[in-house]
Amino acid sequence: MRDPQPGPRRTGTAGAVDTTGTAGRTRRLHVRCASALARAAERADDDGARARRLAAAADHARRAGLPRRAAALRALSLRRKALSAAGGQTELARGLQSLRAGEVIDAREALHLAAALYRHADRPGDELTALLHAAEASWTAGDGAGYADAALRIGGHGAAPEAVRDYFRGIAAALRCDHARSVPALRAASRRGAAAADEHPATPVLACRAALMLGEVSQARDLAGRALARAAGGQRAVPELLGLLALVELVADNHVRAGALAERGLRAAVADGRHNTAAQLHGTLAMAAAVRGDAAACRDHARRALGTAQAHGLMVPALLATWSLGRLDLAQQRPRAAVELLRPLVLGESGVHHFAWRLRVIPSFVEAVALAVAELPGPARKRACRQARLILRTLEEWAEVTGDRPSRATALHCRAVLAVTAAPAAADPCFGRALTLVERVGSEFAQARTKLAYGMALRRLRRPADARAHLRGAMLLFEACGAGVWAERARDEMRAAGQAEPGDRPRPAASLTPQQLRVARHVAEGRTNREVAALLAVSPRTVDHHLRNVFAALGIRSRVELVHALTAHQP
After folding, report:
1. How far apart are CA 423 and CA 429, in angstroms?
2. How far apart are CA 166 and CA 156, in angstroms?
3. What is the mean pLDDT of residues 189-216?
4. Contact 332, 290 (CB under 8 A)
5. Burial 461-483 (b: 16+ CB within 10 A, else e)
C-alpha cells in the first residue's frame, strides 16, 4: 500500500527536516522568529514591551507568507478578545491540519499561538485543547524541551481533568529526572484514567501512556481499547487510536496482533489523508515484519515511514523504522550493522532519537553490542562493552524506581549477555535470575530470547546437553509467537549443539557471508584458526566466531563435515 504523500526525497536514515532551496530556508527562519518573539512577549514585564514583541512577530509571520497568523498576532498585541478568539480558531484548525498531514514543527507553533490567543480571549477550555495538541506535536517531533514546557503549563491548568494534570506533572518530573515525584504522579494518572467514567478525550490516551511507562501493559491495553471503543462512532480519531493500541501490543511483544491493528489503522489513515499517522503505522508494521524475519516487508515499511518522517519532522515513525532495521540485522546475525543503526537512537547522536522511546531501544542495542564484540579488537571491545553497561544502567534505574518487572527481567537478560563477553562462567547465575523472572512476568517472545541467549552461552561453555534443553524451548516459543527467523536461529544453535531434527538436511554453503566462506575454505584446507587469522589479518577469536556461525549455518559439527559441505558446493 502506497503512502499517498511521501514528501520530498531525503538521504540517509536520520530525520531532521531538511528544506530545499533558499526560499524555503528563509520562510522557515521567519516562522521561527515569529514563534520566538511570541513566546518572548508572554514573558514581557509590561504591556508596551509585550505589544512591541507581538508586532514584530506579526511582521515575521507576514514575511513568512502567513497573513492570517500575522493578523492573529496583531489582534493579540491589541488585546482584542473577539479577534483573539477568531484567530485562535483559525490557528487551531491550521495546527491540527499540519499535525495530521504536514510539518509537525509548523503544527506546534500554530497550536502554541492558538493557545495564547484563546488565553487572551478568556476561553480556558479552548486554550487547554490547543495546549494538548501542541504537546502532541512536541511528542511526535521528539522535542523533549517543548514537551517539558507544555507539561508544566498543562500540569497547572485549571481546566484540565485531574488525570491529565497528574500525567503532565509526572512527565515534567521525569524529564527533570525527579523520579520521587514522577512515578507517583504517573501512577495516579493511570489509576484515575482507569476509573474515569465520562472523561476528557485526552484522559484515556494519556493514562495509557502513563501505564506503559510504568510497565502496566494490561492496564495500557484496556485504556487504549476503551478510547478506541468510545471514538469508533466518530471515526475521526480511529487511525491514531488504532496506532496507539498497536504500539501497546508492540511493547507487549504481541507482534502479530500489533501488525493486524496497524494494518487496519493504515487503511483508515490513508483513506482520511492522515499521512503522519500513516507514517507511524508503517513504522509499527516494519517492527512486526522484522520479528517475523520478512526482510522485504520490513525494509519497505521502514522506507515509507522514513519518507514521510523526514519530510515532516516526525521522530516517532523515524525511530520505529530505524529500530526495525536494526532488529532485522540482529535477527539475521549482523550485529555490527545493528549496533551502527541503534547506537544513535540510544545516545541521541543523530536526527533520529526520542526522549521517551529511547528506553525501549536499549535492550536491542545492548544485545547487538554483546554479539558484535567477538569481531572487535581488544580495546574497541572494552569500549563497546563499557558503553553498553552505562546505557543499560539507565534502564535498570527506571525499572527499579517504577517497579516495572518486565523491564527488570529485560535488564537482567541484557546484563547476562554482557557477562558472557567478559566472564562466560559468571553469566550462568545471571541467566538463571533473568530466566526465573521473565518466565513469571515476560512475554513468550521475551522468554524465548532469554532461553536462546542462555542456550548459546551454555553451548560455548561446552555444556551441550543443558544448551539443547533451552534452545528447544526457545524454538517452540518463537514458533508459537510467529517469530520465524528467530525460530530458525534457535534450530541452527540446536544443530551446533549436536541435535538435528528429523528430516534436517545440510544447507548449501551459498548461504554463508563472503567472510564466513573465506574462513571456511581456509579451515577446510587444514589450517588452524591461528593460521587463518594471520592470513586474513584478523584475530583468532574472530576466526573462531565465524567458524561457529559457519557450523550453525550449514548444520554441521566438525571440520570433516565442513570439507564435505564445501566440496558439494563447488561447481
Report:
1. 12
2. 9
3. 86
4. no
5. eeebebbbebbbbbbebbbebbb
pLDDT digits (tens, 9 = 90+) for 9-23: 333 433 333 434 677
Give the whole-angstrom CA distance, residue 121 versus residue 112: 14
* Amino acid at residue number 95: G
Residue-by-residue DSSP string for 203-235: HHHHHHHHHHHTT-HHHHHHHHHHHHHHHTTT-
Measured in degrees and rounded to the nearest 5, phi and psi for residue 412 equal -65, -40
Helices and strands (DSSP H and E) totals, the chain:
28, 0
Q: Is it the case that residue 7 has pLDDT exceeding 80? A: no
C-alpha cell at 466: 543443558
Select the more confidently predicted residue: 305 or 72: 305
Biggest CA–CA distance in the chain, Å, is 89
458, 517 in Cβ contact below 8 A?
no
pLDDT, tens only, 213-272: 999 999 999 999 888 888 765 555 789 999 999 999 999 999 999 999 999 999 999 999
Query: Percent of the chain at pLDDT above 90?
Result: 40
Residue 560 has pLDDT above 50, yes or no: yes
CB distance 369 to 385 below 8 Å: yes
Q: Are 454 and 431 in contact (CB under 8 A)?
A: yes
Kindly calculate the radius of gyration of the chain based on its CA atoms and give it in whole angstroms.
27
Contacts of 119 (CB under 8 A, 6+ apart): 127
End-to-end CA separation in angstroms for the chain: 41
- The whole-number pLDDT of residue 393 equals 94
Q: Is there a contact between 227 and 221 (Cβ–Cβ < 8 Å)?
A: no
Quote the CA–CA distance of 158 and 255 in Å, as a whole number: 40
pLDDT per residue as tens digits for the range 342-360: 999 998 766 788 888 999 9
Residue 218's CB is within 10 A of a number of other CB atoms, namely: 10
Angle in degrees, 0-180, between the axes of helices 405-422 and 378-402, rounded to the nearest 10: 160
Q: Which long-range contacts (CB under 8 A, 24 or more apart) does 95-102 make?
A: 95/130, 95/133, 95/134, 95/137, 96/133, 99/133, 99/136, 99/137, 99/140, 99/276, 100/273, 100/274, 100/275, 100/276, 100/277, 101/5, 101/273, 101/274, 101/275, 101/276, 102/276, 102/312
For 356, the grid coordinates are 521517551
The Cα–Cα gap between 211 and 190 comes to 5
The x, y and z cell numbers of residue 150, run together, are 507544555
Mean pLDDT for all residues in the chain: 84
3-state SS string over 281-325? HHHHHHHHHHHHCCHHHHHHHHHHHHHHHHHHCCHHHHHHHHHHH
